[in-house]
Design goal:
Layout (H helix, E strand, L loop, with lengths): L2 H12 L3 H37 L4 H7 L1
Length: about 70
Amino acid sequence: MNNMLMEIMNSIKKNNLEVDVWKLLNNCIELKLNELSKNNAEQSSALRAIMKINNGKNEAIDALCE
């Protein structure tokens, strides 16, 4: 780890902020996962719509959508 990160980590530990930092980071991760999940659902819906419109007419499009 670089010096700045070590200073931050030492400050967190010195001030007993481990739990607060963990909660903050956990919240950030949950928000990112929710964003990715929403994006994934939107893309999945778009692919299903393309496959439905294609209706097996073009095998290359079906293959790309899978």
